[in-house]
Amino acid sequence: MLVDSHCHLNFEQLSSELDEVVARARAVGVGHMLTIGTKLREFDSVRTIAERYDDIHCTVGVHPHEAESEGDEVTAAKLVELSKHPKVVGIGETGLDYFYEHAPRDLQEKSFRLHIEAARETGLPIIVHTRNADADTVKILHEEYEKGPFTGVIHCFSSGWEVAEKSMEIGIYISISGIVTFKASDELREHVRNIPVEKLLVETDSPYLAPVPKRGKTNEPSFVAHTAAKVAELKELDPDRLAAITTDNFFNLFNKIERKF
């Protein structure tokens, strides 16, 4: 069994045929899916999907793109309260995006730190988005860890080696998306070879970033099998062994979920 550790099932590209999307994932051996919160004002739609399916859980958080538009709504206390729902198993996604900069950097940092505070208080893992922000991401993670431990994952990892190394130093996992299959991703593939398999998760980030051989299509959780196959190749592991290890890693991290396989 595989787990898609990061997808956006409430996004229209997937929600419009959700039963079919979930059925296709199950058919290729995806035993669990984690659908991710990006806006508090849309959290109800995320939670409703998790409530609808036994093999789907969710997270609550505000994407760095929304750090300005939803900044006044984000407090650690609100995230903690929303996370009490039995289907909510993580905080985020949050972090820093200096590529698009849809929100000012100071507001992204403020939101990021509030999410970490909520993760620390609840004991739930934080889901970290980082793009073109390696140094500040590492700095904030380590500054916050010094205040008290927390767990988490760097999702859709495509950063420099320092982000992986410094994140793993404080126990954070690294999640690999379909980017690892792209022709231009030689550096990422080298990083994956060097990351201990005990720290790896796999994800789709669907509906975005469909892996080879599905490039150009709407990504969906069933496609995580292609990403996992590439990671298994890079780690020189049998695909079933890679699936077993990354699934164990997922449930070790998201330990609020009652594991059924």
Automatic annotation (TrEMBL):
It comes from the Bacteria. This is YchF/TatD family DNA exonuclease. Keywords: Exonuclease, Hydrolase, Metal-binding, Nuclease. A divalent metal cation 2 binds at residues 129, 155. A divalent metal cation 1 binds at residues 6, 8, 93, 205. GO terms for cellular component: cytosol. PROSITE patterns: TATD_1 (PS01137). InterPro entries: DNase_TatD-rel_CS, Metal_Hydrolase, TatD-like, TatD/YcfH-like. The keyword Nuclease applies. Gene3D superfamilies: Metal-dependent hydrolases. GO terms for molecular function: DNA nuclease activity; exonuclease activity; metal ion binding. Belongs to the metallo-dependent hydrolases superfamily. TatD-type hydrolase family. The keyword Cell cycle does not apply. Transmembrane segments: none annotated. It comes from Sneathiella litorea.
